[in-house]
TrEMBL record:
Matches recorded under PANTHER family: PTS SYSTEM GLUCOSE-SPECIFIC EIIA COMPONENT
Protein source organism: Virgibacillus salinus
A cellular component annotation (GO) from this entry: cytoplasm
Annotated NCBIfam families: PTBA (TIGR00830)
Protein name as annotated: PTS system IIA component, Glc family
Length: 164
């Protein structure tokens, strides 16, 4: 009768799609850094709009000068990298508009950035955008990827975490 009384509540974090588009597995990303999960596990989205929204409640922890990516950290320490397109660092920030600053607290669905999708498609090697858990090994959590094929930013859950 008492065995569940002191059981720790398991903590589940839902990571929502930051971008509208087609969901693809990380293994399908045409860049070995992502497809071989060198930066961590995750998922990718082939965007159909040039807008990026926060996938979690958390804090903005990184925005490179080239504006092609945003790093976030959830309250329970999960670090998420949203990387727009491939080889977009070479665009040197052109086509990207950041709406937040490092240190900002953000909520699910809050607009983080906008990007010129056609410019990225024409000037980067791909518009496919990886969403990666960069510290997954350190969290003690298990990550499950969605089976969904289409994402709606702020609505579609793409990654669910649970205690291991």
């Amino acid at each position: 009768m008492f065995k569940n009384l002191f059981k720790k509540e398991s903590s589940i974090t839902k990571i929502y799609a930051p971008i509208n588009g087609e969901i693809v597995s990380l293994e399908e990303v045409p860049d070995p850094v992502f497809s071989q999960k060198m930066m961590g596990d995750g998922i990718a989205i082939k965007p159909n709009k040039g807008q990026v929204y926060s996938p979690v409640e958390g804090e903005v922890v990184q925005i490179p000068d080239t504006k092609h990516a945003i790093g976030l950290r959830t309250g329970d320490g999960i670090e998420i990298l949203i990387h727009i397109g491939l080889e977009t660092v070479s665009l040197e920030g052109k086509g990207f508009t950041i709406n937040v600053s490092t240190g900002d607290k953000v909520s699910v669905g809050e607009k983080l950035m906008e990007f010129d999708l056609e410019y990225v498609r024409n000037n980067a090697s791909s518009d496919i955008s990886p969403i990666v858990i960069t510290n997954g090994q350190d969290t003690g959590k298990k990550f499950s990827m969605t089976e969904e094929k289409e994402s709606t930013a702020g609505e579609t859950v793409i990654i669910t975490t649970s205690e291991q």
